[in-house]
Design goal:
The chain is 91% helix and 0% strand. With 79 residues, the protein is mainly alpha-helical. InterPro entries: FAM240.
């Protein structure tokens, strides 16, 4: 009788420990995922600001250069 009881307890503990481990791996995974996606979002908005700044600077430069041959220059740049 004693042996069976012991084996059953081992199996139960094994399953519970496994479930707990899986639960915590999921929780930690979620937290990591949220943190990474937040960092990604912040990084993306910073990049957007940077790009916006570059775009404005480029447009200002183009406006300064804006002469009659502007369209020709643009076509050449596309090549």
């Amino acid at each position: 009788g004693m042996n069976n009881q012991y084996v059953r307890r081992e199996v139960f503990c094994g399953n519970t420990c496994h479930e707990l481990k899986r639960f915590w791996e999921r929780e930690i995974g979620k937290q990591t995922y949220y943190r990474q996606s937040e960092e990604y979002r912040l990084g993306k908005s910073a990049l957007k600001k940077l790009r916006e700044g570059w775009r404005q600077r480029l447009e200002a430069k183009l406006r300064l250069q804006n002469g009659p041959d502007e369209t020709k220059k643009r076509a050449n740049a596309g090549r």
